[in-house]
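Reply to dn_fold:

You asked what the input looked like. This is it:
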Amino acid sequence: MCQHVVILAERNGQQYVSQCEHGTVHLIWDGIGLHLPAEAFNRLVVQIMKTHANILELGDSISQGHCRLCVGNMSLILPVEDFLHMVELIDEVMPQINLTGSGQNHPPFRLAPPNQLIPPVLN
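and this is what came back:
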């Protein structure tokens, strides 16, 4: 269990990035938490920034679309506007992330390109 957590950036109590004494980066977004070793978080950020660049190229044509972030078996669907806010938060914290890690295997990341509408999936 984490005993020492440093908040690296926060937008509100429900959107923040922190890092604990274990090197784990905690990305919390509206009650959903991703808890990844620093090197895995860094790989995720690379994919997020590639998608961000694609969104910037497409411009306003996808402003009402959604992005699907998949980490292992978990998927998070974000409206493009929220995704762009997440990118700002991540961009702010990356210089502060301690990238020393444990070298363990981690789940693969996939980030689907923006789609105009994705119906909700309820299980």
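The longest helix spans residues 38-58.
Hope that clears it up.
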